[in-house]
Amino acid sequence: MQNSIVNINFEITYLCNQQCLYCYNATTVNGNSRTSGGNVIKVLDKLIGNIDFTQLTLTGGEPLLSAEIEEVIIHAIVHNKKVSVISNGSSNQHFRYKKLIDYGVETFQLTINSASSAIHDNLSQTTGAWERTVKTIEFILANNGKIVPTIILTKENIAEIDKVMGFLQDYGFQTIMINRFNVVSNKPNSISLLPSHNELKKAFELINNFAISSGIRITSNVCSPHCILDPQDYSSIIFGTCPDNHYLKPITVDMFGGVRLCNHSTKIIGNIFNHKLDDILLSEYALGWNSTIPEYCANCIVYDSCRGGCRAASEQFYNNHLIVDPIVELLK
Q1: Is residue 327 within 8 Å of 309, Cβ to Cβ?
Q2: Residue 53 three-state SS
Q3: Is 270 left (phi over 0), alpha (psi -120 to 50) or beta?
Q4: Looking at the DSSP assignment, which residues form a beta bridge with residue 253?
Q5: Who's near 134: CB < 8 A, 6+ residues apart?
Q6: Can you give the pLDDT of all 332 residues of the chain as single tens digits?
Q7: Which domain holds residue 73?
Q8: 178 beta partners
Q9: C-alpha–C-alpha distance, residues 88 and 192, integer Å
Q10: Secondary structure (3-state) at 252
Q11: What CATH number is attached to the domain comprising 190?
């Protein structure tokens, strides 16, 4: 019998209006809104009809560029699914955000990487992105929508992490997600965005102190090796881990039904139109994420809780999920 899944990340478009330097999704392309030709709705019907899940998280690309986003949300909510949306907030379509709030979207996850427009715009490679995103934040909050702001820590913005957290605190946010940057192999300058080990530890110390003084819930959702960032050193930050149970992973389904174990993963391990999700998640490749210990971690006493960091990052960088997270080699 199929197990229940908490959340499915559903990539409803590959189009994006930004070209972020830190983007991990190799399928994302710059472009304008267009229909998928009905693929998205077919995939959603297959998900709802055959898979027991609680929440649908819409992502991309930039999901606001999908012509079918409203239909997808209505369809999901009618079938008693919770819906959240991951967006860059800069599509300048406030009327659509209002519709999504009215339809019942529970949470918008918006990326705001700096209190400085210059830094944010450079990271997004899009002039005016910061200003549009801030206006979207203000619009959603004014219309009683819920936002979880997300910061991606890179070499470009890590020195002013305290400023952006203070900026977000002024808006009254009670939860902030702060993720370390995952290096990808398909972008030549990707490594230059990686902070040093000392910069990363100093930033997380600052973040931890901010969590204590502000009472704001801070999460770090990209799994990090404990030899790089030890959660015990930052007890007021909630660190995500890659669970043993594949049904608890951030399972990702693309607009053609392809399944990946994580939104950061590059490997399609099956398709819901060809195989049952149970069979996909119990495939040899999928089980290898749990059964194989990276050589670097062989004698580590905290491996069971750390699991070598982010396996998807290893897929991205080495094209091999059986190697320890590349951040270890790059920083240590």
Answers
A1: yes
A2: strand
A3: left
A4: 10, 259
A5: 112
A6: 357 899 999 999 999 999 999 998 877 666 555 556 678 999 999 999 999 999 999 999 999 999 999 999 999 999 999 999 999 999 888 999 999 999 999 999 999 999 999 999 999 999 999 999 999 999 999 999 999 999 999 999 999 999 999 999 999 999 999 999 998 877 767 899 999 999 999 999 999 999 999 999 999 999 999 999 999 999 999 998 888 888 999 999 999 999 999 999 989 999 999 999 999 999 999 988 888 899 999 999 999 999 999 999 999 899 998 899 999 999 97
A7: 5-331
A8: 151
A9: 22
A10: strand
A11: 3.20.20.70
Extract the tokens encoding 10: 């559903």
Helices 197-214 and 161-169 pack at an angle, to 10 degrees, of 20
Q: By C-alpha distance, which of 20, 19, 17 is closest to 32?
A: 17
Helices (H), 170-232: 197-214
26: DSSP letter:
T
Query: Could you give the maximum distance between any two Cα atoms of the chain, in Å?
Result: 55
- DSSP-assigned letter for residue 29: E
For residues 260 and 252, is the Cβ–Cβ distance under 8 A? Answer: yes
Structure tokens given for 107: 């949470």
Please give the Cα distance from 123 to 174 (Å, whole number).
25
Helix (H, G, I), strand (E, B) or coil at 108: strand
Q: Which residue has the tokens 């197990």?
A: 3
- pTM for the predicted model, two decimal places: 0.94
Closest CA to 226 of 158, 291, 302: 302
* Domain count along the chain: 1
Angle value at C-alpha 96, between 91 and 101, nearest 5 degrees:
120
